[in-house]
Design goal:
By secondary structure, the chain is of the alpha/beta class. It folds into two domains: 7-75, Signal recognition particle alu RNA binding heterodimer, srp9/1; 87-168, Roll (2,3-Dihydroxybiphenyl 1,2-Dioxygenase, domain 1), CATH 3.10.180.10. Helix content is 31%, strand content 24%. It is built from five helices and seven strands; from the N terminus they run βαββββαββααα. Strands 1-4-3-2 form a four-stranded mixed β-sheet, covered by helices on one side. The protein has a three-stranded mixed β-sheet with strand order 5-7-6. A hairpin with a 2-residue loop joins β3 and β4.
């Protein structure tokens, strides 16, 4: 059992977001078929949320999994917003997987930097190829620095460009 479960506060689009995320991870090039909605509980008539209009029928809680990682989400009204202080790190197997997630998640181009992006719900993600850590942490610090500097100029991480910078470093 997972002891720590990230909880996501949406204004009123939890159901749309949860369905989007589950379908996204189930369709990825290296999917593992363990992304699913576990349960959805809805606000009932008479439940009142401070600062929000009628929430009847909206999602009180949604429990779902993305690649086996459990999450909880809720429609809580406009009180809280996502910030870049919290992001979800997706380690990708190859460039095809980086491209897949980037194309489907990136919705705010001005927020993109070094593999970070923001989706249409305002949630920040890091779409990172597993090779990044190997290149940036390589014992040859000159090559690692060259790869790091290349990464710092990127929005979406391009593995071939990192490797080229590393090899030339």
């Amino acid at each position: 059992m997972q002891k720590i479960v990230p909880s996501l506060w949406f204004d009123k689009e939890t159901e749309e977001a949860v369905n989007f995320y589950v379908s996204l991870f189930n369709g990825s090039p290296h999917k593992s078929d363990d992304s699913k909605i576990i349960s959805i509980t809805r606000y009932e008539k008479g439940m009142e949320v401070p600062g929000a209009d009628n929430m009847e029928g909206k999602v009180l809680t949604a429990i779902f999994e993305l690649n086996g990682q459990r999450f909880m989400a809720l429609d809580g009204g406009p009180i809280f917003k996502f910030t870049e202080a919290v992001s979800f790190y997706v380690e990708c197997e190859d460039q095809a997987e980086v491209d897949y997630f980037w194309k489907r998640l990136s919705a705010v181009p001005e927020s993109e930097q070094c593999g970070w992006l923001k989706d249409k719900f305002g949630l920040s993600w890091q779409i990172i190829p597993k090779q990044l850590g190997e290149l940036l942490g390589a014992p040859n610090r000159k090559k690692a620095l060259a790869a790091t500097n290349a990464m710092l100029r990127m929005k979406k991480i391009v593995i071939a460009d990192l490797q080229k910078a590393f090899d030339e470093g």
